[in-house]
Design a protein that fits this description.
The chain contains nine helices and 26 strands. By secondary structure, it is an alpha/beta fold. It binds flavin-adenine dinucleotide and NADPH dihydro-nicotinamide-adenine-dinucleotide phosphate (NDP).
């Protein structure tokens, strides 16, 4: 039993949705394109799950946030896929891939063959068990990667209003979920091993601003230690979190955000991997010419830094998805993907954006006790990264532009004194 398509997208997340839109913009024929996804819903804007989806009032729900509303584009509902002749194979896990034969085998036993495959399998949340702690399956321990996780988190949150939550991890999930829990009137303690939140991106000065803001909202921080075990009651519910430094925190719920691993396992031994992802060239093409990869699972050349990177952010997933379709359908007109890394977050009333790379010397600017401040990173004499909290549309556009130009910086003190006006003048 089997079906055959010209193009198959494996995975039905952000990148799949944006690729589908681009395929129709480029007039793919009805019946040529198939998307296979383990999820039971059409592609949606995953960032909504840690923001609008968790709000206590008027929370975001599907179909409102199907792709591609996040980029102010058409909202692709299941009806849209049908009308455009795109086969959406939902609730279906692919269990093996044979890139030599160009086939995928689903858990239902169907073989789906392709001429061209786009791997968009994203990533999975790391489990506590991978760090030697048991208890992830307790009913009040939550992760957040997909809609099922989000529904579970909402249910658990509603069941313990006014109660205590421990958030494990000080990265993106930890910070965004902690804010949502507070908005839902839950007392939050954040626990992470480093000396500051968001250690991979924030400088200590930037982190300190956000930590102070969170403290003003009642969040407590326990830093420099990790979870060692859970105390579980006779109903299988976690009632306390034990930390390696000896502290015991009573809890009604736990949220875990300790990083991800790209879903590459189907292709290990078949495609070249790098930086934990599938290595692709500037056309997003892997070591097998019929297989492309996009989104969290792809390690691609970032021209600006002459380096292969794997990014775990939505803007990159959207843009490389559009690029891969252009590269496949109009190869002669499509150059190499030229992308300036862009990350952002919105928490409480705050909102920041970052462009580029956070290496080299840091120059902070603006008013860290006010609403608008930021930082530039200068590496080997060039501005390579820019961060801004509380900027306007024009100001964010300016830091994006200045970062893409990588200007030479001779005088760090002058850059510091000019601050945001430096970017605005470029
Ligand atoms: P995904 O969107 O994860 O999609 C992968 C898809 O592949 C899923 O549907 C999965 O079920 C499917 N799949 C995997 N394996 C198989 C298989 N074997 N068979 C069938 N289907 C399979 N980034 C930002 O820049 N800003 C944000 O504010 C932001 N917020 C986020 C909030 C949350 C809660 C999460 C989890 C992520 C957030 N991100 C954010 C990151 C961003 O969502 C990801 O970078 C983006 O979703 C990556 O897109 P993708 O298509 O590569 O993977
Ligand atoms: P992150 O990689 O952002 O952060 C994980 C954090 O957990 C790191 O600080 C990590 O420390 C720490 N950690 C690792 N192990 C432990 C442990 N045993 N106990 C406590 N802390 C630990 O991953 P997240 O899980 O926060 O996010 C998952 C994915 O979702 C990422 O791809 C992220 O980009 C994406 N996302 C993006 C958002 C955005 O862009 N706004 C919003 C939400 C999610 P260390 O660095 O030392 O390993």
């Amino acid at each position: 039993m089997g079906r055959a398509f010209v193009y198959v997208i494996l995975g039905g997340g952000v990148a799949a949705g944006y690729a589908a839109l681009e395929f129709t913009n480029r007039r793919v024929s009805h019946g040529e394109l198939c998307i296979i996804s383990e999820e039971t819903v059409a592609p949606y804007e995953r960032p909504a799950l840690s923001k609008g989806y968790l709000l206590p009032e008027a929370p975001a729900r599907l179909p409102a946030f199907h792709t591609c509303v996040g980029a102010n584009e058409e909202r692709l509902t299941p009806k849209w896929y049908k009308e455009h002749g795109i086969e959406l194979v939902l609730g279906t896990r692919v269990i093996s891939a044979d890139v030599r034969r160009r086939t995928l085998l689903t858990a239902a036993g169907e073989t789906i063959s392709y001429k061209i495959l786009i791997v968009a399998t994203g990533a999975r949340a790391l489990k506590l068990e991978e760090f030697g702690v048991n208890g992830s399956d307790a009913e009040n321990v939550c992760y957040l990667r997909d809609l099922n996780d989000a529904n579970r988190l909402v249910d658990v949150m509603h069941s313990c209003s006014g109660g205590n939550a421990v958030v494990i991890g000080g990265g993106y999930i930890g910070m965004e979920c902690a804010a949502s829990l507070v908005i839902n009137k839950i007392n939050v303690t954040m626990v992470f091993p480093e000396a500051q939140c968001m250690p991979r991106l924030f400088t200590p000065k930037i982190a300190s601003f956000y930590e102070d803001y969170y403290k003003s909202k009642g969040v407590e921080f326990v830093k420099g230690t990790v979870l060692s075990s859970f105390d579980v009651d006779s109903n299988g519910k976690v009632v306390a979190v034990n930390l390696r430094d000896g502290k015991r925190l009573p809890v009604d719920m736990v949220v875990v955000g300790i990083g991800i691993r790209p879903n590459t396992s189907l292709f290990e031994g078949q495609l070249t991997l790098e930086k934990g992802g599938i290595k692709v060239n500037g056309k997003m093409q892997s070591s097998n010419s019929s297989v492309y990869a996009v989104g969290d699972v792809a390690a691609f050349p970032v021209k600006l830094f002459s380096e292969t990177r794997r990014l775990e952010h939505v803007d990159s997933a959207r843009k490389c998805a559009r690029h891969v379709v252009a590269a496949i359908m109009e190869p002669e007109k499509t150059g190499d993907f030229d992308y300036v890394p862009f990350f952002y977050s919105r928490i409480f009333a705050l909102s920041w954006q970052f462009y580029g790379d956070n290496v080299g010397e840091v120059v902070h600017f603006g008013d860290f006790s006010g609403n608008t401040f930021g930082a530039y990173w200068v590496n080997k004499g060039h501005l390579v990264g820019s961060f801004l909290e509380g900027g306007s549309k024009e100001e964010y556009a300016a830091i994006a532009m200045v970062t893409s130009l990588k200007p030479a910086i001779e005088d760090l003190a002058e850059l510091e004194s000019r601050g945001l006006s430096y970017a605005m003048a470029v």
